[in-house]
Amino acid sequence: MQKSLFPGNTFSEQDNQSSGRKKTIRREDLNPSQYEAVTYLDGPLLVVAGAGSGKTRTLVYRVAHLLELGILPENLLLLTFTRRAAQEMLWRASLLLDESCQDVAGGTFHAMANMLLRRYGYHIGYPPNFTIIDRSDAEGIINILKSALSLAGAGKRFPTKRVILNMISKAVNRSMDLESLLYDEYEHLEEFLGDIILLHDHYEKFKFEHGLMDYDDLLVNLRQVLKENQQVRQEISARFRYVMVDEYQDTNAIQAEIVRLIAAAHDNVMAVGDDSQSIYSFRGADFRNIMDFPQIFPNTRIIKLEENYRSTQPILSMTNAIIEQADEKYTKTLFTKVEGGSKPELYNAADAGEEAGFVAKKIAELQQEG
Fold it and tell me: Are 261 and 223 in contact (CB under 8 A)?
């Protein structure tokens, strides 16, 4: 698997063009849309990838193809939502090409932010050895500050540390201020608004003074560095000449802005996602990121992956009919070359509980059938 999540500059041009490489890209290995997405190099690219359409395969081949063209591993950036996803993609790419694929900078937004802030965080007052705190650490700090500010006295109904941290994280990931969030979702806490803002201010000050960052800070602080320092922005953009982002429909506003800032010098961004699979708005994902991508990156090429490799046509036809009802969408028609398949059976449950019971019962029946 991957040697290092975000390695340094370890490969030379000569290393990258070793004669022992395998030939990676053959047209017959990919369908026409996949091949176009893999080989397109003329600026911003949005790949609208329907479910089961081989988006991971497309990303894997693109990594291998770019390296095969002579682009250095450290000049590629592959952003995924889990470390394991990046590791698997780079490992699969190495099977196509060679071990240099595993030296591509691949991982999560937070891993990338951690790596870059170790080098550039001093621009906003953080030392290279800053400490990343987890949820438990953050709760401990909130408790200390609540006591210091006399917000945790006997008889007070002040929000718990868990609620406070949830509010702070939601506000950050949705790019909202705490007051707006409170009136949207926590109106019952209106009487504590002033104290909540005071506690938040002290929480931010405490972290800064002690060289601490929570996970949300990694993204917020990287965005700040990129926005405020043109030289840093240009240096990072020059390093990552080709940027690939998986599951773009699940990015939040901060992540989308980071991508825009990193690619500012070249616009070589490949965003892969499916507007029909945007389900993480509750944790800050912004559907607008994928819908507005062509406006944010003018001259975007849009390629649709519509051939499905997992399902049968009757199921896909029903899926197409459902997707067609969306008010705003990238129009696509999923299809498969797989023959056969029975029509889906629809079950109209009265509520979520009945639906869950039906699913559980059906699973048990199928298990008994072997």
Answer: yes
User: Is 13-118+217-311 a CATH 3.40.50.300 domain?
Assistant: yes
Note the pLDDT of residue 1: 44
CA 278 to chain CA centroid, Å, is 12
Residue 316: exposure state from Cβ atoms within 10 A (0-12, 13-18, ≥19): buried
DSSP result, 235-280:
HHHHH--EEEESSGGG--HHHHHHHHHHTTTT--EEEEE-GGG---
- pLDDT per position as a tens digit, 117-150: 999 999 999 999 999 999 999 999 999 999 999 9
- Show me where the domains of the chain are located: 13-118+217-311, 131-210
Note the pLDDT of residue 10. 36
Contacts of 67 (CB under 8 A, 6+ apart): 16, 73, 76, 93, 97, 100, 101, 104
The answer to whether residues 25 and 39 touch, using CB atoms and an 8 Å cutoff, is yes
Res 276: pLDDT: 86
pLDDT of residue 141: 98
- Give the strand pairing for 76-79 and 242-245: parallel
Q: DSSP of 107-176, one letter per residue?
A: E-HHHHHHHHHHHHGGGGT--TT-EE--HHHHHHHHHHHHHHTT-S-TT--PPPHHHHHHHHHHHHHTT-
Q: What is the pLDDT of residue 4?
A: 46
Q: Nearest CA to 4 among 113, 111, 161, 144?
A: 111
**What is residue 153's predicted lDDT score, i.e. its pLDDT?**
60
Dihedral sign for Cα atoms in the order 122, 128, 133, 139: negative
**Contact by Cβ (8 Å): 300, 264:** no
Rounded to 5 degrees, φ, ψ at 355 are: -60, -45
Q: Which residues of the chain have pLDDT under 70?
A: 1-24, 152-156
76's enclosing H/E stretch is strand 76-79
